[in-house]
Amino acid sequence: MTLTPVIASYTGEVFAAVKRFLTPEVLDLVAAIARSPSAAAHAPPRLLDELMEMHVLRRVGEAYRLDTAVFLADDIDLILDTVSPLAEGLAGRVMEVGSAFETAPPALVIFLGGILALVQGLGRALRESGVGVNWQAYGGRYARSKVDFDEICDGRAALPPDCLNKTVLPGERYTAVFIGPGGHPFPSLIHPPPGARAPGAYAHHLNRYLVDAYAGLLSAPASAHPALRAAADAAGLYHQGQPQTALVTPAVAAAYSDAVEAVAETAAAYYLLHLPELEALLRATTPGQQGVPEANMMMHLWRYIRRITAERLYARGFFRDSIPQEGSLPVFYQNDIPLIQRLLV
Q: How far is residue 230's CA from residue 239's CA, in Å, rounded to a whole number?
């Protein structure tokens, strides 16, 4: 059995630290404890302490138990059988209340209707309802990060790509949100590219400048330096003089704010309606049987739901962008928009 980690983190440094720690040896240990908690008795104490710091394990008396989602092949099959019809139902409701997005540019639909309303709006409702653990408040060496795990198996391989995944890169006046599982043009706008050494202070400030520069190009293309326009073409932001992404201004956000709220409220109501069914599902999984609270696993379960929901929304024509083919789409927004400040946390 081979596990793969799924990491959420608010800082690149913590994300990198988590990745460094989760060596094959550590992943094998987590897998062994998932199969049998008694495996922890033979593990190096330093690894157990670190996994507790990471909220992967908890100590119960002299024993160790899982404290996060570790979904094995049978769990994943069970999850998919349960959530696929729920995702279909949620997609139908989003189509009903999100009609204002029918004429919006594709980049605005995936950002405002997908990331902001469906993902962030639902996340806000779940936090306010106490359904999910408040991992953003975690402290220590792995502050504001959460780690879950999946077994690499046929069920997981059959999942659609996570087109509602996001990575955020802030500038001084604007922020870039990279939507999708990765790929072009995501590597073109980060220095150094993903997978390279961690950026230093120079690269950090360069990235912040580039976010604002590219956003400025989208708002006033005629005034941009030719080299910046050429860079935007190379990064896929422009093609044959036409923008391939969107810039969300206060006016744009105001025009779609009612639709954003409607989708967010509908998704939250639908999710909470089916909460007893989902909690029962989580209790039946491998970590659930070890006593992991449903709240600690809810975010990872939602990753499955959002993947399948996004697939259904692409099939229905609600999402019309190129993320399934390109792998990623950057969208820029102005930093002082209250709607985004409230939801995109």
A: 10
